[in-house]
Amino acid sequence: MEPATGLLRRPARFGLLLAAYGLFLLLGAAVFAALEAPAERALLAALRAARASLLAEHRPCLAEQQLTGLLRGVLAARGYGAFALGNGSADPAWEFTSALFFAASALTTTGYGNMVPLSDWGKIISILYCFVGIPVTILFIRCLLRCLLPVLTYRPVRYIHSRWGFPWAHVALGHSMVLGLVTLTLFILIPAICFCILKDNWTFLESIYFCFISLSTIGLGDFVPRVMCPPSLHGFYELSITCYLLTGLLAMLVTLETVYQLQEVRALIRFFAPSRSSTPEEEDRVGIVSRDQLALTSDLGRCTPRNLTERGDP
């Protein structure tokens, strides 16, 4: 009866994890609804008041149907990435560097939504391009990670461990924290300061929000990196944004992969994940090995580049 209890232990933990995640989703929905619903009602009331004031002031020469049609046209154009407001001097949306940014945001699944294909052939090509390009992008990023992780993660940890004799687990944890701070500074805080300067209507919090939304590939589209700049600098700006998106995404993945290799994270995953063992004997052996190898603060034996925090005995 005891082996059967052991077999049920891990599925029960996984069920607990599923329940906790579902509760996390419900809690997030409740918080967002409580915070955003009043703001939405206030915004709609202000817009209705402004519309009524405009119609009352210009009623002899402005019909309500004309104003409604104009606003619908402007919003429809905005949905396709065309800015119909202003005097028409805005930068074109589909010159080469802007199209390059669109391709990069599509292949990284960021998809801000500020630029979308207008023509039918553009929509067809977008489907085929992303159908092929997204798997190729994933493969390309995985290859880059295999090249960068030993240089940025394994070798520094191994050097500090062998040079000063600090416990491997402690060095790996400290290295992950430093790498996270460097990534946060170089790809969140500093770019946020730049966007706050370039975009006069963005606050520092909104700039940080945009950087995080971009590098996490969420890309809600409420903030887009489009600025009014001289034509001579527009191409350079669009190219810089494209490079920032690609390098920042790669830096985030390197950091997350480094954190994932920590033995504390590995232990947490093994605690909740269902066992792949097929027999009670294999389950018992896995449990013994896990208890021996996943002590969170023990100094382990030889190191291997495959796992930064788990090493076998000499």
Describe this entry's structure for a reader:
- The protein starts with a helix and ends in a 21-residue tail after the last helix.
- The radius of gyration is 26 Å and the shape is globular.
- The protein is mainly alpha-helical and 314 residues long.
- Helix 3 (96-107) runs parallel beside helix 7 (231-260).
- It is built from nine helices and no strands.
- The model is unreliable at 1-8 and 278-314 (pLDDT under 50).
- It comes from Crotalus adamanteus.
- It is found in: Apical cell membrane; Cell membrane; Cell projection, Dendrite; Cytoplasmic vesicle.
- Residues 93-147, 184-259 form the Potassium channel domain.
Write the SSE topology.
Layout (H helix, E strand, L loop, with lengths): L1 H56 L6 H16 L16 H12 L12 H45 L3 H31 L5 H12 L15 H30 L2 H10 L7 H14 L21
Order of helices and strands: HHHHHHHHH
Helix content: over 70%
Q: What does the average pLDDT come to?
A: 77
> What structural category characterises the helix and strand content?
mainly alpha
Summarize the structure.
The chain is mainly α. Helices cover 72% and strands 0% of the residues.
Quickly list its features.
potassium ion leak channel activity; glycoprotein; disulfide bond; globular; 314 residues; 0% strand; 72% helix; mainly alpha; disordered C terminus; disordered N terminus
